[in-house]
Amino acid sequence: MLNGERKTPRPLRWAMVGGGRLGQVGYKHRCGALRDNTAFALVAGAFDIVPERGREFGVNLGVDADRCYDDYRTLFAQEAQREDGIEVVSVATPNGTHYQITRAALLAGLHVICEKPLFFTSREAYEIKALAAEKNRIVGVTYGFSGHPLLLQMRAMIANGQIGEVRMVDLQYTHGFNATDEVDRLSDAQKWRIDPQISGPSFVLGDISTHTYYLSQLVMPQMQISELLCDRQSFIPSRAPLEDNALVMMRYANGAVGRMWASSVNAGAMSSQRIHIVGSKASLEWTDVNPSELSYQVQGQPNQTLYRGMPYLDETCNAWERLGALHTEGLTESWANIYLKFALAIDACNRGDRQALDQLVYPDIDAGIDGVRWIENCVRSADQGARWVAFE
Amino acid sequence: MLNGERKTPRPLRWAMVGGGRLGQVGYKHRCGALRDNTAFALVAGAFDIVPERGREFGVNLGVDADRCYDDYRTLFAQEAQREDGIEVVSVATPNGTHYQITRAALLAGLHVICEKPLFFTSREAYEIKALAAEKNRIVGVTYGFSGHPLLLQMRAMIANGQIGEVRMVDLQYTHGFNATDEVDRLSDAQKWRIDPQISGPSFVLGDISTHTYYLSQLVMPQMQISELLCDRQSFIPSRAPLEDNALVMMRYANGAVGRMWASSVNAGAMSSQRIHIVGSKASLEWTDVNPSELSYQVQGQPNQTLYRGMPYLDETCNAWERLGALHTEGLTESWANIYLKFALAIDACNRGDRQALDQLVYPDIDAGIDGVRWIENCVRSADQGARWVAFE
Amino acid sequence: MLNGERKTPRPLRWAMVGGGRLGQVGYKHRCGALRDNTAFALVAGAFDIVPERGREFGVNLGVDADRCYDDYRTLFAQEAQREDGIEVVSVATPNGTHYQITRAALLAGLHVICEKPLFFTSREAYEIKALAAEKNRIVGVTYGFSGHPLLLQMRAMIANGQIGEVRMVDLQYTHGFNATDEVDRLSDAQKWRIDPQISGPSFVLGDISTHTYYLSQLVMPQMQISELLCDRQSFIPSRAPLEDNALVMMRYANGAVGRMWASSVNAGAMSSQRIHIVGSKASLEWTDVNPSELSYQVQGQPNQTLYRGMPYLDETCNAWERLGALHTEGLTESWANIYLKFALAIDACNRGDRQALDQLVYPDIDAGIDGVRWIENCVRSADQGARWVAFE
Amino acid sequence: MLNGERKTPRPLRWAMVGGGRLGQVGYKHRCGALRDNTAFALVAGAFDIVPERGREFGVNLGVDADRCYDDYRTLFAQEAQREDGIEVVSVATPNGTHYQITRAALLAGLHVICEKPLFFTSREAYEIKALAAEKNRIVGVTYGFSGHPLLLQMRAMIANGQIGEVRMVDLQYTHGFNATDEVDRLSDAQKWRIDPQISGPSFVLGDISTHTYYLSQLVMPQMQISELLCDRQSFIPSRAPLEDNALVMMRYANGAVGRMWASSVNAGAMSSQRIHIVGSKASLEWTDVNPSELSYQVQGQPNQTLYRGMPYLDETCNAWERLGALHTEGLTESWANIYLKFALAIDACNRGDRQALDQLVYPDIDAGIDGVRWIENCVRSADQGARWVAFE
């Protein structure tokens, strides 16, 4: 049970690159990091590509005007001069800048929390992993849905054999907000997402399916994809070569199979993200629109619904409980949980507590690498006409 | 609005082959055919592979003992001798016998209503189609879920452009009753389904996915699959080469894509069958466990739920309304509707009313052929290691 | 498991009074009675207040024209002359005629199945009960929702102590089809319902709440109301003195409390009827729009959903199973079940098998009397300004 | 759209009385007040009845040890000495202390935010209202569910006539956590709630039904109860005279009727709070477990579900939007919204901007008074044996 009391000695001095007024994700980072004011303190930032707008924005958040910088380079350089300079930075900028900013931050001795998809290529990701190790710094990835406590319940139940052996993995992250191309013309946040120079080799595969793919890894850490096949489409032709819809089939090393549907043209859909794991004895299903409920269906028994915050849940789940049963938690709590994990990871790293770090389940650099690999393999298959490819 | 009043001059004299006490589907045929006693009258049968058990059963249903025959050959031969002999026969036997019984019935001058999957091969199906044409007889196929009125609402809405152009077709028919092999050992009805000699080239693809595939054709008659890819598994190894789980991807001629999940090992699932069509403007979704509700989701508008029996529905839907809004209909009504359509088709055929016949939307021999083709293409793809194949 | 095989020696010769083309309930009677053609055979009727329309209708159902009578008196008189005359009659006419027709039928030696609410007064009902006893005939009441098998599961679970002691009974039957007075002007079926001369002392209390009240008695036979309080309204003033909305509070002899909301002005509602029983350990909830699901909520445990047709259900529930799990049953099956019970009751009565009769749980004359008493007590309370009255 | 940027010139200096480690509600206050660090800053507190525990707790939240006081009197006295002393205090203590603490705070010149139910009697509440006016200070009440944006959508739709005239108000707040008396023995938070000396004249009526009653006032400000009737029970006898279950019937001045069910013995219930308003044309329904969905049911049209964050919602609703459509908000956002409103009210009050204050819809002292009156009237009716009483 979390109630805001500190879990680390003091709040970490934290800055953001990006996450300004026009984007939606910056607020989620701040809600997560600043939830209880005991893990992070926002003390600086380069919030916006337009410096003056970013400065005004930062001041409105309570940041000192002279610590609202024009760009990330100045941010890192100036803060390095201060005794009370930042220790960790979050990167909430378009995909194409993640690599360079993360690299610069690590070189400046900072811990980094970066948006997904981490980078364009796994080669870049492995390079950054090596750099982080060399600098003894953490790189966390904001798979923002992964902090919902019931996902840890799923993880515990699967590990405990409560569904038997996994046979089928059914993943979905779809919405319909790009069913027409109106948003492509109007929204800056959308424009860069469909520009391969900025977005990278994919649109919905990177933008949304990486979330759900990570959830599947989180709840089934032992499962490995051996082969996959991806068919992707650009139903709005101007988005080509980037896809607005993609279907993936997976084959796992243990003989299980799976599928993913990622789409931004699922017109009218308000159901979003779903993860459904079928075992030899039972199934588990969770959706992000009802994150406080977990469906557990044992063959031959009444179907069960488990509720967040109840004493019958696994202690690894309830450790992240905040509001109590019947009191609805949302995406904010999920972000708060992963940011608290980042703080715990940074603290352990700073203390050199390798054991604590190894035991902490959080979206780390390896999770970020896996997301990039997922995209790479999907794109490689799709570009061969949707053929099976070995998962590399 | 249907209330049981006759739609044809008199009830057709009807017999069943199979459908005895130990199977589950026979009762559905009788519920459908005999719903109002104005379309069909059950006057004879060869209900069971064990003649005496079949005779006792038939008598318990109210059939004269001397019209309960030992086998279908005797049934057809003896009834042909009577002035009041049967006019139409339903075939509710294991798959491997459909072809020979249907052929014999047509040769005996009978109309035929046959269980799905119709036959083992499309070659057989085309041959039967030619024979039926030659004999001027109807062959109907009991896609038993296809009589739910809201499916016709979906059909009308798609035809009217209410979802825009179809982009994604998401089909599912899954259950978990075969999650273990217990039922393989205990149930006669299951045993033959996993024996290729009797069941044919597939298990769940034929046994269940043909239903959902037909529903997709029913609601989108204009959509044609150009290519598909099927990956099938035998999670219970003793079922090999027949699959207990299958994933299919489809590509349609208009550029739409689709997928199907058929499974009898979806452990714990009580949700069964789902058909979800995504268009460029909106989506429609229907499930067989809530057949009186249709979800209509227009991008950018509140989601809508349409209810069976309401005046706002299309007249082609409400023509098949029976109980009135709020009064729950179930699978029985669906069967009653398709059997009434069979009666209307037979009557039109008997009267030589080609126009009436052509306008009637019902699961006819072509729908049966398409189901067999669906299976053939899926199996062909699967047997090539789940490669894309042109839909033949 | 029911599959249509006879449960009684032969179908009973059955007629209907009322239930013609313009009403909705007649079809439900026929669907129930004729479900399998093994319990009842429709051989005569006085289907309509307009004789010629009734005759045409009866012929369309397959009844001989000369057994389609002008009125119930002729029906009873003429059929009494025949060796193959009717044995049982169903009364599906406006409320105000139930008493006289039932009385005449009993005097003619017939078993009677009558629509609810049975009569205007409990005095009439007790008189008819005595007459039925004297004539050794059954009077059944068509609480048409009471045949859903999961209600017997609720009954068994409550009897078995699976919810503990009953504390709160929450009943609801509401719809919105009378939200405006349009239907009052257009529909004959509605016109008589709001005319106290024909409908009796209540509208929604009698028309719909009696259904749900009976369901509560069915699932909790031991629970007795000691006091109640009813507040009723006529939101469409022209319906006064009859109510289109009513709220009731109940106090039970064991200390439990309850409430009922009956309404025909619950604008937009498509949820209909709900029965929710709270015990000291757990709750049960069932709705008629999802009759194949039963919610079982044990305090401190995951919530459970039980599904019709599953082996884990009580045998008293599964005895009435027809289609099998996952195959949706609807209101037709419920009517089929109560009509089959009527046939079993009539058969036991005819055979003088008192024990079989006493063990049969079905909506008998006592259930009909209780429904009338429910209305009487509600109306008495309401007419005193919604004061508590002892349940008489 | 809220993104954390300041809405007032600077964060208010804020303290808490109560809300320590052992209670659950304190964290909700802090999550609400400190959401964006732009409305409030937590600088002092008397967090716990056990001073040392409270001090340790405060320090763990980041409060200076020397501003963690032993009790509220010391808090108010010492802070009044400081130039940077607190401006506003939240009272999150057992009910019986609300009056004295609020009074002391106002006398100390502080704005007050107090838990519900505000006080034991409306006399006290009116007195405090007068004192607040005299001191020109705000008294806000933490009806913590009332900040969910879709409630403002309901309010706008009802005001716009989208459901017609209100006819029926159906309110519910039930849970089952007190189904047994185990919690009465184990939990301090429960013990005081069933002690009339500390809890006041009611248990569930005050503890939970006041929330839902306020929601009904929020969405229908024009509706006034003229009479009500309340029947309350103590199913766990040791809780008497305080009730663990209560049923209320309401009559409104406009002829509408209503009901409320409040319970802590609804065993197994995980559904919590529901508000359902039936108008002459349509109904609206909202629950706190799915706060991002609003059901809108127009008679004769497909049912609609409106989703939080969508452009089609009223601007008074979307003004409080934070995370964007499909991104689940929970109870935290509701608290954040009402605390932001408190900050806006305090700022307007401080500036003497009466117009801004009058236009702000938030749970103010009048809402607190109404909650107390609600309880008083319910208790008065119940204590007369559940008779109708005029709403005073």
Keywords:
NAD(P)-bd_dom_sf (chains A, B, C, D), 14 helices, globular, 37% helix, alpha/beta, 392 residues, homotetramer
Report on this structure.
Four copies of one chain form a homotetramer. Chain A contains 14 helices and 14 strands. The first copy, chain A, has 392 residues and is an alpha/beta fold. In chain A, the strands form two sheets. A nine-stranded mixed beta sheet of chain A has the order 13-12-11-10-6-9-8-7-14. A five-stranded parallel beta sheet of chain A has the order 2-1-3-4-5, sandwiched between helices. In chain A, helix 1 links the parallel strand 1 (12-18) and strand 2. Chain A starts with 11 loop residues before the first strand and ends with a strand. The mean pLDDT of chain A is 97. Strand 13 of chain A pairs antiparallel with strand 13 (303-307) of chain C, so a sheet runs across the interface.
List the topology elements.
4 copies of one chain form a homotetramer.
Chain A: E1 12-18, H1 25-33, E2 40-46, H2 51-61, H3 72-81, E3 88-92, H4 98-107, E4 111-114, H5 122-135, E5 139-141, H6 149-159, E6 166-174, H7 182-186, H8 188-191, H9 196-199, H10 204-219, E7 225-233, E8 245-252, E9 257-263, E10 273-279, E11 282-287, E12 293-298, E13 303-307, H11 315-318, H12 331-351, H13 354-359, H14 365-383, E14 389-390
Parallel strand pairs in A: 1-2, 1-3, 3-4, 4-5, 6-9
Antiparallel strand pairs in A: 6-10, 7-8, 7-14, 8-9, 10-11, 11-12, 12-13
Helix pairs in contact in A: 1-12, 4-5, 5-14, 10-14
